[in-house]
Amino acid sequence: MFSSFAKAFTNLFKTPQTIDYPLTPIEQEKEHRGLIEYGQEACIYCLKCEKACPPGAILFVPVENPPENEKNKKGLKYHYNPYLCIYCSECVRACPKPDEALWQSNKKSLPATKEDRVNESWFELERLKKQTD
Ligand code: SF4
Ligand code: SF4
User: What is 31-106+124-133's CATH number, 3.30.310.50, 3.40.50.920, 3.80.30.20, 3.30.70.20?
Assistant: First the structure.
């Protein structure tokens, strides 16, 4: 009994093991597997990343009349769904140009809101993809 009181009393003066979240932000670990980033300039449109992705979070979908900065020889546009991504890095491992065309950052995904209509827009891309496969 006395030892429990003594322990409780000494704990009052110790540095807490917890942080005052959200007032104190959580430190981002350097090795954190975060969002996938894409470098269109270096991409050769081999689609290896799309095929390697277990949940199908990467889609290359044909675009009609793409803007000048999105034009490429296959007429495809890269799409990435951070809410489907499981951050496994398989796409980066499959990419012949890792660090230039595709890489994993340590950025965390922001929560989606209802207005983002993430599911609807992704279903539409999947539908377009199926039509052209
Ligand atoms: S990290 Fe994994 S789940 Fe995310 S896009 Fe790459 S292969 Fe897909
Ligand atoms: S694997 Fe790399 S080079 Fe190939 S389509 Fe994906 S991002 Fe582009």
Answer: 3.30.70.20
